[in-house]
Amino acid sequence: MLKTISIIDAKNHVDEEVKIGVWLTNKRSSGKIAFLQLRDGTAFFQGVVVKNNVSEEVFTLAKEVKQEESLYVTGTIHEDQRSPFGYEIELSGIEKVGESENYPISPKKHGVDFLMDHRHLWLRSKRQFAVMKIRNEVIRATYEFFNKEGFIKIDAPILTGSAPEGTTELFHTKYFDKDAYLSQSGQLYEEAGAMAYGKVFSFGPTFRAEKSKTRRHLIEFWMIEPEMAFMHQEESLEVQEKYIAFLVQSVIDNCTYELGILERDINVLKRYTELPFPRISYDEAVEMLQKSGEFPDVEWGEDFGSPEETYLAEHFSKPVFVINYPKAIKPFYMKPHPTREDVVICADLLAPEGYGEIIGGSERATDPEFLEAQIEKAGLNKDDYQWYLDLRRYGSVPHSGFGLGLERAITWITGEEHIREAIPFPRLLNRIYP
Ligand code: 4AD
Ligand code: MG
What we know:
It catalyses: tRNA(Asn) + L-asparagine + ATP = L-asparaginyl-tRNA(Asn) + AMP + diphosphate + H(+). It is found in: Cytoplasm. Belongs to the class-II aminoacyl-tRNA synthetase family. GO terms for molecular function: asparagine-tRNA ligase activity; ATP binding; catalytic activity, acting on a protein; nucleic acid binding; transferase activity. This protein has 434 residues and is of the alpha+beta class. The protein has two domains: 3-98, CATH 2.40.50.140; 119-422, BirA Bifunctional Protein, domain 2. Helices cover 31% and strands 26% of the residues. The chain is built from 13 helices and 17 strands. The protein has helices at 56-64, 112-117, 119-122, 126-148, 187-197, 233-254, 256-262, 266-271, 282-292, 306-314, 368-377, 386-393, 406-414, and strands at residues 3-4, 17-29, 33-39, 44-50, 70-79, 87-98, 152-153, 159-160, 172-175, 178-182, 199-207, 220-229, 279-281, 320-323, 346-351, 356-363, 399-405. The strands form three sheets. It has an eight-stranded mixed β-sheet with strand order 7-11-12-17-16-15-14-13. The protein has a five-stranded mixed barrel with strand order 2-3-4-6-5. Strands 8-10-9 form a three-stranded antiparallel β-sheet, with no helix packed on it. Helix 4 crosses helix 6 (233-254), helix 4 (126-148) crosses helix 7 (256-262) and helix 4 (126-148) packs across helix 13. The chain is elongated and about 85 Å long. Bound molecules: 4-amino-1,4-dioxobutan-2-aminium adenosine-5'-monophosphate (4AD) and magnesium ion. 4-amino-1,4-dioxobutan-2-aminium adenosine-5'-monophosphate binds at residues 164-165, 185, 187, 208, 210, 217-218, 221, 223, 225, 357-361, 401-403, 405, 407-408.
C-alpha cells in the first residue's frame, strides 16, 4: 500500500513513491509531456507526466483532465529548484474522483463582482489560499499570545440589548416579544469578565450596519477584545504593541510560503516587530495634517477619514498610536482626561501603508454617576445598562481594553488591497451571497 500524504509534506518524501488526493488548477501539455498544476489545500505543486514512462491510458487522462477535477495521483517526489514550492511529483498513475465541467473561474482575469458571486469557488485560488492560511495563523497566534499572558477567553453574547458603539449602526432583530441587536462589540461583557477574572478576551463576530462601501469596511467582522482589570491605558498600549508584534512575527515564522505567494516583503513586516510603536496625541495629529497643506479643511474636533489616517501613518515606518481623541467623537464608556474637559483617555492604532485603524481602545470610566449621565446623553436606555453600572458599584477598579479588527489586521499583514479578501465569505454593503 502506498503512503497517502499531503503536498505540504513532500519535503519528507523525496524520491519516495506516494499517493495524494488533489484538484487540478491548470495544465499544459505537448505530445510527450504534460504538466499538471495540483493543489490539495495544503500547498500547490506540479505533477509531471512523461508519455514514455506511463501507460497510454494515464497519459491520455493527463491530457484530458479538466480544471478543478479531483484526482488521486501516485508518483515519485523530486526536488524542483525552479518552483517556489521546491518540489514536484513525477506521476505514474492518475485516478479520477470527481468530474468538473466548465469551471467558471478560468485563469484569465475576471471582474470583482463575478468573483464575489463565485466566492465559494474563488476561495480555491492561490492568493485566497495564502490569505486564509495567514488568517488561520493570526487566529492561532492570538490564542497563544493571550494564553501565554494569562488571559482567559470569555465569550460575549451575539444577541444583546446594548449598543456600546452608538445606536446608528445597529442590526435590529426580534427576541421573542422584545427587541435585540446583533453585537457591535463584546466590550461591555468583557468588562464584567475582567472584574470576575482579571485579564480576559473575547473573539467573535461583530456587526455594523454601516452604509459605507470602502476597502476597509465589512458589515460582519471578527474582533478580538481583551479587557484588563487594575490596568491604566499606558500599560494597555504596551500589551497592544506586544500583541501586534507577536502576530506579525508568528506570520513571518510560520507562513513563509504564503507570504511568498502574496509577494509580501518580509523585510517590511520585520519592521513591525520592533517595539515600541510611536505615540502621538490627537492634537499633534491635527497639527501635522494642517501643516501638511494637503488637508486644508481639517479642524480640531473631527474624526479622521482614511486619507488623513494614511497620511499620519506614512510619517512613521511602524504602526502609530494616536492618543486622547475629542470626547465628542468617542463612545460613552471612555475615561475622561484628568486635567482636560475635551478629550478622553483612548488610542487608535493606525497601521502603515494606508491600512488605517486596526485597533481602537481606551481606559474605561469608573464613576457610576458619570457613566449613567453618559448613557443618557448617548440616547441609550439606562435600564438596559444597570448591570453595566453594577460593575462600578461593586469593587470598581481602573481598567482598560481594546478591540483588534481581525480582517483589518489581516489585510495589512498580507498586503491585500481590499478587506473583502481577508474573510472567507464577506458581508459587504448589499452583498449577502454566497
Ligand atoms: O473602534 P471600534 O469601533 O472599537 C470598539 O468596538 C471597542 N468596543 C473595542 C474595545 O475597546 N473593546 O472597533 C475596533 C476595531 C477597529 O479598530 C477596526 O480594526 C475594527 O474593529 N472595525 C472594523 N473592521 C471591519 N469593518 C468594520 N466596519 C469595522 N469597524 C471597526
Ligand atoms: Mg474605532
